User: What shape does this take?
Amino acid sequence: MAALPPPTCPTCRAELDLRHDDGFDAWICPDGHGLAFTLSEAYERLQDDEIHDIWRAAQAPDAPRSTRGCPMCTQVMVAVACESVTLDVCAVDEVLWFDAGELDRLPVDVPDAPPSAEEAARLAQITEDFGEALEAGWDAEEAQTLTGRLARRLLPTQDSATT
Assistant: This one.
């Protein structure tokens, strides 16, 4: 199995450093040009509605092209306006690029309120009724994302773990 190339800064092409900060993982440019993180990681730092708006805009057929290549795959990203910044987003790898200081201009995620007793009961019923089908769908969807592809390369599958 071929090793994946390390992510690189879309500004200077330096190899990005992976940093862990209290449950939030991001790739940082060593020369200070900015940082990148995956769409799933965005839920640790951004508001849910902002993430949904960013993703919807990134997938729009008329999304304006960025001038930068994705840190992961080097394909040209799209430019997405969010609050007071314009982000570069790779819809293929689900990666968001923030120039230096841009992330600090966005509000930090506020935790969602826990579900009410009624909502929790409905979720439990849905899980009981459709759990296996939901899990299969999630597995199939995960296989299409950068994070999922990386996890499949790094983590043993259930079948290989038992053999």
Notes: The helical segments are 39-42, 48-59, 117-142, 146-154, 158-162. Strands lie at 17-21, 24-28, 34-38, 65-69, 76-82, 85-90, 95-99. Residues 2 and 153 are 10 Å apart (CA to CA). The chain has two domains: 17-105, 117-162.
